[in-house]
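Table S5 (text form). Sequence records supplied for joint modeling of the two-component complex.
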Amino acid sequence: EADIYQTPRYLVIGTGKKITLECSQTMGHDKMYWYQQDPGMELHLIHYSYGVNSTEKGDLSSESTVSRIRTEHFPLTLESARPSHTSQYLCASSELRAGLNIQYFGAGTRLSVL
Amino acid sequence: GQQVMQIPQYQHVQEGEDFTTYCNSSTTLSNIQWYKQRPGGHPVFLIQLVKSGEVKKQKRLTFQFGEAKKNSSLHITATQTTDVGTYFCAGSGGSNYKLTFGKGTLLTVNP
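The corresponding structure-token record, covering 225 residues in total, follows.
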């Protein structure tokens, strides 16, 4: 079982609030990712990082920002939450090993913006 | 950009019936991965295919990678209720580590 943790698991917040979703992994993986997934739908990559101080935007445009100051930590921040941000946010990490780049996912944060 | 299409979107079967989901990429892939997400859960890695025409088996699951490395399939023989969930294919192109996920196929099994 992978050691990747997301907090909080559930968050209900009002419009305009600033929020930070936490993601930590203890596997020492260099690559980390944030996905957005609506219920029963596909995963959309919104941010990724290949190492400390490296962050890139993903395929789906997002108003969120990320930082990677430490290998194990990859927080996602929304400066001003809106109802359109309501979704599930999944964090993942990976490391290329023996030709495999398996992504290990956290349990996710379900965000509701009222 | 790279697109990965997956069909069907939903599949309901009786327990014991077979199930297949298909994945097609708009571009040639370096490898393809399959993940399973149980209802309310998170995606869990199943397998990675790398070689053209590759076939891999995991008990009742059979995974194939097309000769052109643009399509893949997952076949489950004699489904069980524990197979319920959404199956995603995810393609990787070139030397980057990003995955493009298909929309997934939701499998429900009637006991």
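Note: Chain B touches chain A through 23 residues (CB under 8 Å).
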